[in-house]
Amino acid sequence: MPRSGWIALTLVTAGFAAPAGAQPLPPIAPDLAQPPTTLSNSPGRDPARPPSVLGAPVGVADRAPARPVAPATFTDAPPAPPSPVRGAAFGAPSAAPGAFTPAPTAPVQAVPAALVDEAVGRTAYTPPSSDPIEFLNTRSALRAKEGTKEKESAKFGEALGEKLGTVFGDTNGGWLRSDHMFDGFISPVTNPFLFEDPRSLTEVRPVFIYQRVPGEQRDFRGGNISFFGAQARVALSDRWSVVMNKFGGVSVNTNPGSAFRDETGFAELWLGPKYTFWRGEDTGSLAAAGLQFQLPVGSRAAFQDTGTLSLVPYVSYGQNFLRDFRLGSFNFLASTGYSFSTNNRRSDYYWLSAHLDFDAGNFHRFYPLVELNWLINTTNGRERPMGAEGRDLINFGAAARGAGLLTGAFGARVKLTEHAQFGAAFEFPFAGRKDFFRHRFTVDFILRY
To answer: pLDDT (tens digit, 9 = 90+) per residue, 167-191?
Structure first.
């Protein structure tokens, strides 16, 4: 069969294969004669029309009229609520995810900048109870507490001050208390029985001195002289005080060949009043004058009973300077006096002492120091046939007129607290007759109220 015949047969067969009930497809465009509500799948539509799978078509009548569009405006959106955070040590979150807790409606009180600066800068600031920045003030108070945490030495010092107050019978509002207006000063270490601090003080001061005697000294042939005892001071006011300069024992140790034996006995008793007549609180200046009574009531074997009495008027001066120096300040002390006897049995002498210390960092804790002491005998004593004198340890009553000695010392004083401090210094001769002085070591411990 020709090709055209096959094509005609195929078309005829396809036409007869269509189902008998097939109807022509409905028109795509909607029937505009129907109301808009009958164009959807509703009871009012033509039942012969199959339902539309995609829903009712939208006609022109179904479209809503265009609305006027307002110009766009921009407003700050409220901040999104923070997402709850779960920490390993803090348990479950306080709010469910996505929950939003509105801010409190109470107005937030503004904090002045000056108040914040003061609370941060001054750790000792104590805020009022109604301060709105409670957290900041609490943290500041904690810092102040940590920064001023008391050390064990400070606690010891306070307890010691209370004990000393009980010992001295301080029941009248502190009238026996030391003058603490000048706590930046320290007391001298060497020549302790003559070199007096110009302040009015209440204290007990144990003192130990070891002095080596030169081997060429013809009386002792070497050996050593030691003092062990204490000083005591009582402040009656910030100007008047009573001082016991010397109380204790003396030990004399000679070398073989000496005409004198080794002896130990009570020392002379030195005491007297002191008046601080100048207290320059603004200038850091002090000056005092006093009168010392040297009573030879000690042991004869240790040469502590010479004559009857010596009177020693003296003056002391103190000055602080360079107080604004970043590394620390300096303190200068000087004292001078003259000892003259009431009879001709004891030797008379003039003395002059100077002291310079450095208050490291202005912390009032560590004070390196240097000191100078000069003593010259001005009369001969008539107690013993000797040609040398024992300076502040022993008045032999010897023929030593014109004999003088200049010594220097270096050392330091350490304040554990203002109530407890100790000092030490090594002293050696500079110029003059050494006599019984080859070198000396002095150490003390101050318990001050």
So the answer is: 545 544 467 999 999 999 999 999 9
d(CA 287, CA 280): 9
Q: Residue 235's domain is classified under what CATH number? A: 2.40.128
Give, rounded to a whole angstrom, the gap between the first and last alpha carbons of the chain: 144
> Over 50: is that where the pLDDT of 126 sits?
no
Q: How many domains does the chain have?
A: 1
Any domain includes 233: yes
Query: Is 352 within the bounds of a domain?
Result: yes
Segments forming the whole domain that contains residue 401: 176-439
Rounded CA separation 219/393 (Å): 16
Kindly provide the b/e burial profile for residues 43-78, where b requires at least 16 CB atoms within 10 angstroms of the residue's own CB.
eebeeeeeeeeeebeeeeeeeeeeeeeeeeeeeeee
Is residue 223 included in any domain, yes or no? yes
As a three-state string, the secondary structure of 363-398 is CCCEEEEEEEEEEEECCCCCCCCCCCCECCCECCCC
Residue 211 within any structural domain of the chain: yes
For residues 165 and 159, give the distance between their C-alpha atoms in angstroms, rounded to a whole number.
10
SS (H, E, C) 205-221: EEEEEEEECCCCCCCCC
pLDDT single digits (tens) 192-208 = 999 999 999 999 999 99
Extended strands (E) in 269-403:
269-280, 285-295, 310-321, 328-341, 349-360, 366-377
Q: What is the dihedral of CA 30, 32, 33, 36, to 10 degrees?
A: 80
